[in-house]
Amino acid sequence: MTVIVRFAPSPTGNIHIGNARTALFNWLFARQRGGRFVQRFDDTDVERSRQEYADNILTDIAWLGIEPSVVEYQSKRFAVYEAAIAKLKAAGLLYPCYETAEELDLKRKVRLTRRLPPVYGREALKPTAVERARLEAEGRRPHWRFLLPNFDTDPFSTRRTEVTWTDLVRGEETVDLASLSDPVLVREDGTYLYTLPSVADDIDFGITHVIRGDDHVTNTGVQIALFKALGAEPPAFGHHNLLTAVTGEGLSKRSGALSIASLRADGIEPMAVASLAVLTGTSENVVAARDMAELAGRFDLASTSRSASKFDPADLLVLNRTLLHGMDFAAVAERLAALGIAGARAEPFWLAVRGNLDRLADAAGWWRIVTQGPTQAPDLSDEDRAFLRAAFDLLPAAPWDGTTFKAWMDQVKAVSGRKGKALFMPVRLALTGLPSGPELADLLPLLGPEGTQARRP
């Protein structure tokens, strides 16, 4: 059996790191098993769905390293859903309901005052064809509910009906269909709610594993019943925990918080995002993976915690630094060239500065220092200025290499008697204008004799 998974966001906003978690879980699960990844857009909400958001999502998942086998849009598949509706109606499993939202709300309140669960009582099954015709003549249009299989012969006499599955994350799960209202599948205006198109598509695309957030656990009981009503074997299900901010607050596409696009614009590396999104809330330590192959080797869906996972966005910067500090020149050469960092000095420059970067774009600032000098003259005391002038008189002759700086400092130390911070800090300030940064032993050959003498105070 070929494993087939899907990531199915609604294109109503830009995806955030929590959405990326679901996408990556599916991608890695399929990758480990040589399977296929279907990118499906649940865009039946024509009022809020936008093609620009779908395009942005495709850009975001590509940036993360996800390569869909196919891209599908629910808005192009209405014929499939109409066929499913016709099948359910023919089986007597989809029935029209004429109650208004106000009437339904009143019924819920009445049940609650009687200390009863607010479950729909299937009153819409009682009207005759003549009574329904009268309601339609009054201008009412029905919404359509799926009749849950939670009774023997009388739909008004429900019994406990357990739907059980072995969840890929949570283990044995059970939902009692008698505790649920018959779900609305079609609205009064003929548009579909999430459940019907999702199940119809999963059947049509041959989805073998549905991996999603644990806010869908209860939905799964209903969907398994719907799969069976449509004559299909349900896929395997796995419900992972959700990411929340350190405050416990959930993430939202509408707020734009921690969107993948904003993280990319902020200079965060894709593998920093992927590592945090995947490994947070699992038994694995949250350590930056260098690539998807390494992350796939560490990913275990079953090791995911059952409780929500809080994460600190500041951790992204820690992972980002780790990735940058370990990147070789070949991995970043094109991006550095786009920043104007090219030529014979580019590779030794990268090896010198990478350990001091939070973001790759920070390299541009160091390149400017190396090629043009400090952005502003260092604030030196008269004593340090005199010390530096004497030190610059002792600069070794060319050629320079990685040993030059130590040889120079040994001689300056012997002549001046300075050591430690008093020896090195004035030199660093003169060469870079900054009190900290890359090793001066690595920078000095990049500056060369001419570039170094140009910084003589």
From TrEMBL:
Nucleotide-binding listed as a keyword: yes
Instruction: Indicate what this protein is called per its UniProt record.
Output: Glutamate--tRNA ligase
Report residues binding ATP.
K253
* Entry-linked SUPFAM superfamilies: An anticodon-binding domain of class I aminoacyl-tRNA synthetases, Nucleotidylyl transferase
Instruction: Write out the GO biological process terms.
Output: glutamyl-tRNA aminoacylation
Where is this chain's protein located in or outside the cell?
Cytoplasm
> Tell me, what does this protein do in biology?
Catalyzes the attachment of glutamate to tRNA(Glu) in a two-step reaction: glutamate is first activated by ATP to form Glu-AMP and then transferred to the acceptor end of tRNA(Glu).
Catalytic reaction(s) noted: tRNA(Glu) + L-glutamate + ATP = L-glutamyl-tRNA(Glu) + AMP + diphosphate
Q: How does it assemble?
A: Monomer.
The answer to whether keyword Nucleotide-binding applies is yes
Its cellular-component GO annotations read: cytoplasm
Sorted alphabetically, the keyword list is: Aminoacyl-tRNA synthetase, ATP-binding, Cytoplasm, Ligase, Nucleotide-binding, Protein biosynthesis
Where is the motif ('KMSKS' region)? 250-254
GO MF annotation list: ATP binding; glutamate-tRNA ligase activity; tRNA binding
